[in-house]
Amino acid sequence: MSNKFVGGQAVIEGVMMRSPIRVSTAVRKQNGEIVVKNDDYISLTKRYKLLGWPVIRGIVSLIEMLFIGIKSLNYSADVAMEDVEKKEAEKKGENPEKNKKSQGLLMGITMVLAFGLGILIFFFFPLFVSTILRLKKDALAFNFVAGIIRVTMFLLYIWAISLWSEFKRVFQYHGAEHKSVYAYEAGEDLTLENVKKYSTKHPRCGTSFILVVVIFAILFYSLSDIIYFLLTGTPPTLLKRVLIHFILLPLVAGGSYELLKLSGKKRESKISKLLIAPGLWLQKITTKEPSDSQLEVAIVALENAVAKEKRDLRVEI
Questions:
Q1: Confidence of residue 308 (pLDDT cuts 50, 70, 90)
Q2: Structural domain tally of the chain?
Q3: CA 140, CA 260: separation in Å to the nearest integer?
Q4: Which of 9, 119, 155, 274 is the most interior residue, by most CB within 10 Å?
Q5: Which tens digits make up the pLDDT trace of 17-32?
């Protein structure tokens, strides 16, 4: 099995792959052509020793994943809609570049609003419900109920979007990403025949990370609430609890990252299998069997992501 870390995500009509030194996004255009965007990128955790410390590296990695993921998604959207936007702009007599800038600004505002709404729904609402149920004096029960509500809402959200036919292709590209990564980790040549035989469910998927975060948050936030009670003599109010939990969220993400990283190194241990299992179950929804055409896109993305690394290794030898 390869000891090189690679990972990625599905984007619109394509796949983004990331190796330790490069990010590559491959997208299938409407005319069938596969276009690729390559960006050399070394993680901040590798460039700065302090940022590579345990827990801190998890926080940094999460921010990097969000930044790279959004950037890749925007690129795939530009490619997928390029021909359509050009035709529409020409019909209306508009400048395509000016129209593109306006849409970019609108997308930025939409993403900020979506992030704010996500915080409100997935962060504040579960705490609000736990408060209504009068559980604030029992830290473990309070955070357990809040965690169950978060998991339930997340699962309902995933299930709901899976019913949308347009998302099926995204989930197929997600499956293509996992299959190609599996083949690479096994040290096989990245051919259709080799890649097709692997599973669409991968233990290092981001869905596993999200569920580990929720589980770890129950324990971590329970501890923080207990410490608050010991220091003040009273349980935190709803607003104070929201503020404290939000401030501690990076530590929860960093700790969860370490747990998932450890489970990835020791996949055969019982604890690792326990941590990985919920994410694999969820991938029954978030990944679908891809077509050969979609696998080709994932393979192109992965080959580009590791190409520079292979060249550098040949030079060193």
A1: low
A2: 1
A3: 23
A4: 9
A5: 999 999 999 999 988 8
Ramachandran region, residue 152 (left: φ > 0; alpha: ψ -120 to 50; beta: rest): alpha
Joined tokens for residue 192: 């259709």
Q: Which two tokens stand for residue 92?
A: 């209306």
H or E stretch including 36? strand 34-40
Q: Residue 28: which domain range?
A: 7-316
Residue 7 sits at φ, ψ, to 5 deg, of -160, 175
The amino acid present at 51, given as its one-letter code, is: L
In a domain, 304, yes or no: yes
Backbone angles phi, psi at 97, to 5 degrees: -70, -40
Burial track 214-246 (b if 16+ CB lie within 10 A, e otherwise): bbbbbebbbebbeebeeeeeebbeeeebbebbe
- Asked whether residue 72 is domain-assigned, the answer is yes
Residue 250 lies in a domain: yes
**Is residue 40 domain-resident?**
yes
Tell me the β-bridge partners of 171.
none
User: Both tokens of residue 65?
Assistant: 């994943």
pLDDT digits (tens, 9 = 90+) for 194-210: 999 999 988 778 777 77
d(CA 260, CA 55): 12
* Pairing mode of beta strands 22-28, 14-18: antiparallel
Q: Is 312 exposed, middle or buried (0-12, 13-18, 19+ CB in 10 A)?
A: exposed
